[in-house]
Amino acid sequence: MRSHVPHHTSEGRARAVRRSRRPARCVAALLACAVMVLTACTTSTPAGPGPTPPDGALAQRVRSTPSATPATTHLEALQRIADDAGGNRASGSPGYERSVDYVAGVLRDAGFDVDTPTYYDADLGRELRNVVARTRDGDPGALVLAGAHLDSVPEGPGINDDGTGVAALLEAALRLGPAPGVATTVAFGFWGSEEEGLHGSRGYVEGLTPQQRDAHLLYLNVDMLGSSNGGYFVQGGAGDDESETGPPGSGTVAAVLGEELAATGARAEPIPLYGDDDGPFVEAGIPTGGAVTGDGDTKSAQQAAVWGGTEGEVFDPCYHSACDTLTSVDTDRFDRYTTAVAATLARFAETPAGAVG
Known about the structure:
The protein is α/β, with parallel strands linked by helices. The chain has a single domain, classed as Aminopeptidase (3-Layer(aba) Sandwich), CATH 3.40.630.10. Helix content is 34%, strand content 16%. The chain has helices at 57-64, 72-83, 94-109, 159-176, 194-197, 199-206, 210-215, 242-245, 250-263, 278-283, 301-307, 331-349, and strands at residues 6-8, 14-16, 113-115, 118-121, 126-129, 131-134, 139-149, 184-191, 216-222, 233-235, 269-271, 288-292. The strands form 3 sheets. The protein has an 8-stranded mixed beta sheet, with helices on both faces. Strands 1-2 form a two-stranded antiparallel ribbon. Strands 4-5 form a two-stranded antiparallel ribbon. The longest helix is centred in the C-terminal third of the chain and has 19 residues, at 331-349. It starts with 5 loop residues before the first strand and ends in an 8-residue tail after the last helix. Residues 4-47 have low confidence and may be disordered.
């Protein structure tokens, strides 16, 4: 995750800090009843989300049945890759290339259709690879996509940022399986060069034809799911304008994720989208949600009262540093989000095309 972080004042108001934009005035949104809004809002917000998709057989299965390989196994693999590659998995480095090969190999071995399309990293002046995997059944004209960035900063191995997002999506894919038997295609994107300027996700979106773009029913961005002093944030539908709320339907994505976090016993707080890998999808008009546990900003007293942790301390003390290792990850928080993300994707996969509203 780049240094666009959710900011929380001493009063506990969730805001999105973006270098080139003013902070959001208020972020509370009217999500589904399972999503607890922790803060008050005095300015207008967009209309609440539409009806959320029902809880079908696939969602029930992925919620209750982990894969044979624990999700933490993927975190361990990414840590080994970084250790063997000079301590990081930064885009263009040997650690990044090995991360691409690892993720592609896991998904190919599981039976998914896997591609490693290239994109151009203008900062490095060279082409690099994303990883995109799809289920083998389902209508290619109706696609549910989740994504996480596969690169780290040069300063560390990036196991929370964003190894946790990568591992959660691998686990979600393995729980769903390559042929889940639903009409919708489910896809997983693993983007490079997020830390350098979103080159991987932007390259994916810009490479879509209009027909392919229209096939995307939604995008769920998954970034930092194990912050040691973190919270349970959902993005989509909250904020002042569409760059923060996402296009119509984004609030429904956030609402379902909030419901699924509630099913794990976690209370979710809505915050705006803040222009990481979600940004290119928002710009393309694709309904977009996000999952994040917090990075370099501080936890409020209200948040500590609800979630535990330390008031006044940053969500992730190892954000963008060498200590972002396996030992810095809150595995309980990571496990809750992993299950919630998998079930969210399953519910939308079972939903008729066009029902995200």
